[in-house]
Amino acid sequence: MIQESAKTILIIEDDATTRNLYLRGLEAEGFNVIDAENGVVGIEKAQTYLPDLVICDIVMPDMDGYDVLRTMHKDPVTAIIPFIFLTGSDHLADVRKGMELGADDYLTKPSTLEQLLKAIAIRWEKQSLLHRWYATKSHQMPESEPPNTTPSVTSESIFPAIRHLKEVFDYIEANYDRGITLSNVAEAVGYSSAYLTSRVRDKTGHTVNGWIVKRRMAAACLLLKDSDQTIEQIATALGYQNACHFSRQFRQHHGIPPKTWRKKHELSQVFSHEKPQRENYAPLGRG
């Protein structure tokens, strides 16, 4: 049994019976569950609630699951949310298409609750491993920068040293503060978005948009720590359209809002610089 009461899952499924079945089952396991009856509503709820995971049917009217995933990946706010496809088709071509678009897993209906829970657990285990890897890399960043300069980190401290993906990571490094997305990177390196997504995921376990967000979040932490810029100024410096957009993505990535992160770091700096006062005792005289 999985107990993840803090986790929120969004289920996008047009069939009410299936949707309610998974909703009740996941709620019984302690998850916070949001449901949507179609892709359009699902995207709106993903942007509003920023769930920890999306489970989405493929065959739906008006907007199918593939279009839902494409739309979510175009928006940096929702691009890094883990995504599991749910469908009645087990054709290899359908599975491959979903993976090329950047899906994290693929379950065929009918699936038992146990199968769904196992897929969820595997996805979050992989995500946790990536977060730990990134946290280790983050500790290698410079502690401080000269006054009145923009803090920076090296590309080597963020991106893995994979020769075949150097061009991809170099482009992200040079343009992460300009609001770039997967399509911009794919165009720059001469691949289709689907192929590039598959290639980067196979080599790194993460999406192109995920790497863009990681680079922005690394820069955000340094700006919050080593500058007095406002949240609005930092958001603009990192290519976000507005501070709300930046704050939501920062909270999703780090678990707390940027203002809270800054305050916690300031407090830790204060405590780390405090030194115990030495007591000055006069030597005891001899009687």
What this model shows, in words?
The chain is of the alpha/beta class and 287 residues long. The chain has twelve helices and five strands. The chain has a five-stranded parallel beta sheet, sandwiched between helices. β4 (83-87), α4 (92-100) and β5 (105-108) form a beta-alpha-beta unit. α2 packs parallel to α3 (65-74) and α9 crosses α12 (258-273). The longest helix is centred in the middle third of the chain and has 26 residues, at 113-138.
How do the strands and helices of this protein lay out in sequence?
Elements: E1 8-12, H1 16-28, E2 32-36, H2 39-49, E3 53-57, H3 65-74, E4 83-87, H4 92-100, E5 105-108, H5 113-138, H6 166-175, H7 182-189, H8 193-204, H9 208-226, H10 231-237, H11 243-254, H12 258-273
Parallel strand pairs: 1-2, 1-3, 3-4, 4-5
Helix pairs in contact: 2-3, 6-7, 6-9, 9-12, 10-11
Task: For this entry, give a set of tags.
287 residues, alpha/beta, five-stranded parallel sheet, 5 strands, disordered N terminus, disordered C terminus
Silhouette? globular
Beta-strand share of residues: 5-15%
Query: Total strand count, please?
Result: 5
Q: Give helix and strand order, one letter per element, not per position.
A: EHEHEHEHEHHHHHHHH
Strand count, sense and barrel status of the largest sheet are: 5 strands, parallel
What's the mean pLDDT score?
79
What fraction, in percent, of the residue positions are helical?
40-55%
Q: Which radius of gyration do the C-alpha atoms yield?
A: 23 Å
Structural class: alpha/beta
Helical element count?
12
